DNA sequence: CGGCTGACTTACC
DNA sequence: CGGTAAGCCAGCC
C-alpha cells in the first residue's frame, strides 16, 4: 500500500537521506535543512511513522546535545548504538560527541540538495 | 472543534 | 547538571 506523505514530510525524508555514513545530525538541524525551522518535532513524527522500507538512517539522528533520543538502556537505544558503532561512531554514556561526529554539510551540499 | 501528546529545542534559574 | 517554561504542530481521541 502506498504511503502519501505531505510535502514537509517529503523534504524531511530527503534531508535525512543526505546524512553521510559515520556522521550524525540533530532533529532541529534536519528540520532547518529541510526548510522547516522550529519543527524538530515534525522530524520525530516522520521518523516514528516512516515505513522501514525507506531504509532511513534513523540511527544517525540524535538530540541537539548529542544524546540519543531514546532512554539509556532501552531496546531502541542499544540498537542505535550498535548501528552507529558499525559506522565508527562511538556512543559514550548514551551520548555522541557532536564536535567529532556531527554532520556539517557544506554550502555546496545544501545547494545541490535544493536542486533536486 | 478542543485538548493532549510527543524519536524536539532554546533560554533561564 | 537538573527543573520549568514556552515555542512548534501533526495526529489521535
Automatic annotation (TrEMBL):
The keyword Membrane does not apply. It comes from the Bacteria. GO terms for biological process: DNA repair; methylation. GO terms for molecular function: methyltransferase activity. Keywords: DNA damage, Methyltransferase, Transferase. The keyword Translocase does not apply. InterPro entries: ATL_DNA_repair, MethylDNA_cys_MeTrfase_DNA-bd, MethylDNA_cys_MeTrfase_DNAb, WH-like_DNA-bd_sf. Residues 9-89 form the Methylated-DNA-[protein]-cysteine S-methyltransferase DNA binding domain. This is Methylated-DNA-protein-cysteine methyltransferase-like protein.
